[in-house]
Amino acid sequence: MDTHTLTIHSLSQGFREKKFSVTEITKYFFEEIQKKDKDIGAYLSLMNEEALVEAKYADGLFHENKVTSLLTGIPLAIKDNILIEGIKTTAASKILEQYTASYDATVIKKLKDEHAVFLGKTNLDEFAMGSSTENSAFHITKNPHDFTRVPGGSSGGSAAAVSAGLAVGALGSDTAGSVRQPAALCGVVGLKPTYGSVSRFGLIAMASSFDHVGPITKTVEDAAILYDAIKGHDPFDATSISEEQLSTTHPDPHYIKKLVIGIPKECFEFELEKEVKEGIERAMEKFKRLGFVLKEISLPHIKYSVPAYYIITPAEVSANLARFDGIRYGNIQNLKSVRADGHQILNLKELYEKNRGTGFGSEAKRRILLGTFVLSAGYYDAYYGKAKKIQECIAEDFDKAFDNKTENGVDVMFMPTTPTRAFKIGEKTENPVSMYLSDIFTVPMNFAGVPALSLPVERYDLKKKELPVGFQLVGKKMHERDILGLGMYYERN
Predict the structure, then answer these.
(1) What residues form DSSP beta bridges with 122?
(2) Catalytic annotation, residues
């Protein structure tokens, strides 16, 4: 059996037709992880016992013909900043190395209700801060298409697991592109939903006004299946949206064919790697051949999105990470009472300095310091206030472009996901600004809160060591059905 070709839809059909059992498939995935993940490093921890218990229960449901969900028995991977009760959740940080979750995130509870099988927790950049999964406190994850290159970040472990056939699907989180960018670099599909359409309850917060939970899968159809399972209002998340959301799994092709696609001209004013530019042009030509109307539009303020983002989010980071002191949420071992020189720690200030100084990695420290600086007296108006105004301008750009009452209004936008393909491990670690620019095409959608889908230009063969290129489809708020439907149409044709 080739785990690379298994999708949620095909696997669920195989279970129903009794071609194999959930237990057999679950064991097979753990065997594949045992063989391959030592080279890739997609997982931080595995849930062997818990997975096999759930697999056995799912087999019973299939045997009794009581299955109503496509996700029953499906092996999934979960990014290690999403809480699963009784399972270690580290956010890839030493300061949470000993933390065991005391409750389920809402998305986990929903997937448990569908009787999905969780294989384990995947690697990420510490507290989801990064674009390469090199900032993990535990190990670097490698791109399955080329082990010398990064898988993207911060959801690099989830994208690598799906790309390598070590999970059928996965959950990641997206604050500036952390689902879409690794999906593009690993040749898989990643969805950032509308802000508030999926609950953030139980997601370890990085920047609360930008964080999203989203699926990473092999096909757009699978992304729609996972999204439909996790979406919806949650009373535990004050930002979640209560309006009814339409199913995205079975789009109407006649409706999809009428969608007008906008091409933001600013996205092609940035320097693109040659192979990315060629891939994006092939995808645009395919949409034209399929009969879609493509129209040039303008998003004049998106060029300011990255500098504004790296002022606003560190401010939120400095507040959100203040709660982590190495005492609560799992003590840091061997640091609680002894300094590096062996002397007893005598006061709380010294304890905090030691725990936080050792527990956080360099990128987390950088953003905490930057955030504290921009919020400090005398600098708030100069930096943070101006950045928030830029965010408002970018959101207005999207509103205008999606206004169908105007002559230039469009239904969906098309743009690159990343300016380059997967870069070499270590290539950008010494230049944080260069790393931050990896998010140039993904940050604006987090500013505007609109949904965005990254999918590969074509199918990429792992054996050929091809480096994937991805593109994005961006929709109006709460119009996931548009981008997922259009993505399925592209994929099937």
Answers:
(1) 43, 79
(2) 79, 154, 178
